[in-house]
Amino acid sequence: MRKYVYGFAALVAPAVLGGLFVAGCSDAKGQGLPGADLCGPCGIIAEGDVSISGDARLDGFFKALGTMQNATASIQADFDANIRALAASYGVTLTGEINAAAVTTLTAAIKADITANARGGITVDYQPPQCQASVNVAVQAQAKCEVNAGCEAKVEPGQLSVACEGTCSGGCSGSCSGEFSCEVEAPSITCEGKCEGACTLEAAAECEGTCHGDCSGTCSAQDSQGNCAGKCEGNCSGTCELNVAASCSGKCSGKCLVNQGSASCTAQASCRGSCDAECSGGCEGNFTPPKVSAMCDAEADCQASASAEANASLECTPPQLKVDYAFAAAIDGDLDAQAAFTARLSELKVRGIAILQGAAKYEALLTGKVNGREVFKPSPLAQLTASMSALASPTAIAKFNIPAGKLTCAVSGFVEAGRLSSALVRGTTATLQAQANFVTAFTGGFS
Question: End of a domain among 265, 287, 309?
Answer without folding.
Answer: 287
